[in-house]
Amino acid sequence: MNLVTLLGFIAGAITTTANIPQLIKIYKLKDANDISAFTYILLLIGFILWIIYALCINDFPLLIANIVSLGVVIGILILKEKYKKKTPKAIR
Amino acid sequence: MNLVTLLGFIAGAITTTANIPQLIKIYKLKDANDISAFTYILLLIGFILWIIYALCINDFPLLIANIVSLGVVIGILILKEKYKKKTPKAIR
């Protein structure tokens, strides 16, 4: 593996796992009021399309990376839904 | 352009622009308490590495996509820093 390929792998690993701290933060805060559902719905659609694309071109690393990303995004959307009504209740 | 390439372009366009609604939401709420700075610092590093990678392999679409992503992430980090102390002040 040359240095440029390695650079691509590191960049991919970082951007793939970047949303994990966000998932953990929402879980700890039990609040996701500031989180844009639209952003994560776009990411959900985007990662599903990337998975289909990866299957079409038989790119295994791209497939795995996007399955991981999709899992994290689904987790964030589930927590966002779960903690949705927390802030309005606290204000009331 | 065949259907698979088009699929890749659409997937890329969606994941590249996905964070724009998050940027707008923070700007409107003037609050970013639930936003993980760690996630956006990881994305910042990741997109910088993708830009270097794109320059190394002379991939222009990849370069443009990651410059856009980097711009949005920098915007989110700036707003996160700007609205950082809002919530503690409100509690005090």
Strand content of chain A: under 5%
Number of helices of chain A: 5
Report the mean per-residue pLDDT of chain A as an integer: 91
CATH topology of chain A: Monooxygenase
Return the domain count of chain A.
1
Shape of chain A: elongated
Regions with little confidence, pLDDT below 50 for 5+ residues of chain A: none
Rg of chain A, please?
16 Å
| Largest interface: pair, residues per side | A-B, 37 and 37 residues
Oligomer: homodimer
* CATH architecture name of chain A: Up-down Bundle
Q: Tell me how many strands of chain A there are.
A: 0
| CATH class membership of chain A | Mainly Alpha
What order do the helices and strands of chain A follow?
HHHHH
Task: Compose a concise summary of this entry.
Two copies of one chain form a homodimer. Chain A is built from five helices and no strands. Chain A is an all-alpha fold and 92 residues long.
Explain the overall architecture.
With 92 residues, chain A is mainly α. Chain A starts with a helix and ends with a helix. In chain A, 80% of the residues lie in helices and 0% in strands. Chain A is built from five helices and no strands. Chain A binds chain B through residues 4, 7-8, 10-11, 14-15, 17-22, 24-26, 29, 31-36, 38-40, 42-43, 45-47, 49-50, 52-53, 56-57, and chain B through 4, 7-8, 10-11, 14-15, 17-22, 24-26, 29, 31-36, 38-40, 42-43, 45-47, 49-50, 52-53, 56-57.
